[in-house]
């Protein structure tokens, strides 16, 4: 019996190793998106979850408000980022940056209260 449980160990390690890069990749996307947000979006938007970080422009929603909008998804944020808005400057955010920025914005979603 002990031999069969040891034989199973390499499979468990393989699956654990396969899962870790995906988690690290998601965190990397969020981190890169946060860096971009602070460098390019903070002039108008509140980009951090902190209560002290608010949008300097009343027409620009805090990213935490966007993330906590009912029904908001990462895909919806990505579409929103490639759609022109009347109150937003007309600039193009590259696709990879949009993915990272959307991952960052959705990372600001509050945990559901119990």
How would you portray this structure in words?
The chain is mainly α. The protein has helices at residues 2-40, 63-67, 74-81, 95-107. Helix 1 (2-40) crosses helix 4 and helix 3 (74-81) packs across helix 4. 18% of the residues are buried. It is globular and about 40 Å long.
Short description:
This protein is an all-alpha fold.
Which short descriptors sum up this protein?
globular, mainly alpha, 114 residues
SSE arrangement:
Elements lengths: L1 H39 L22 H5 L6 H8 L13 H13 L7
Helix pairs in contact: 1-4, 3-4
Per the principal axes of the C-alpha atoms, what is the gross shape?
globular
Percent of residues in helical segments? 55-70%
Radius of gyration: 19 Å
**First-last Cα distance:** 43 Å
How would you classify the helix and strand content by structural class? mainly alpha
What is the helix/strand order? HHHH
Which consecutive residue ranges, at least 5 long each, have pLDDT under 50? 1-21
How many E strands? Answer: 0
| Beta-strand percent range | under 5%
Please outline the major beta sheet. none
Q: Given the structure, what is the number of helices?
A: 4
Residue-averaged pLDDT: 78
